[in-house]
Specification:
By secondary structure, the protein is α+β, with helices and mostly antiparallel strands. The chain has two helices and six strands, in the order βααβββββ.
């Protein structure tokens, strides 16, 4: 069965960990493509979202998005939006929903997201 919007990206989170869920069907599909291309890195990204989705020290591979992409809305809540660089072009974007203690994956894909392209 293929995952879709609202589905959990893995087993239920234990105490002290964040849930990781897909915000929509496109992010679930992109996750599958990313996992096929870079399974180990995708797994590490999932662990990061479960345990430290808001790192104390940002890196070039894991950081909060900037400008108009710094926030997103999910189910009426405005949340911080973060990015994990999984491969040279592959990215995962997620919203930090502190109310639900959930990372909502808004984008996952093997190619660089077009939303960050400068015009």
């Amino acid at each position: 069965m293929t995952a879709g919007r609202g589905d959990r990206a893995a087993p239920p989170a234990p105490d002290g960990h964040w849930e990781v869920r897909f915000a929509d069907a496109a992010s679930a599909k992109g996750w599958e493509s990313l996992a096929q291309q870079a399974s180990e890195n995708t797994y590490r990204a999932w662990i990061t979202m479960r345990t430290t989705p808001r790192p104390a020290t940002e890196t070039s591979r894991h950081h909060r998005l900037k400008g108009g992409l710094a926030h997103g809305t999910h189910r009426g809540h405005i949340c911080e939006q973060w990015q994990i660089e999984v491969t040279g072009g592959g990215r995962i974007w997620y919203l930090l929903d502190s109310v639900r203690v959930t990372c909502w994956i808004t984008f996952a894909g093997t190619g660089h997201p077009r939303a960050t392209d400068r015009r």
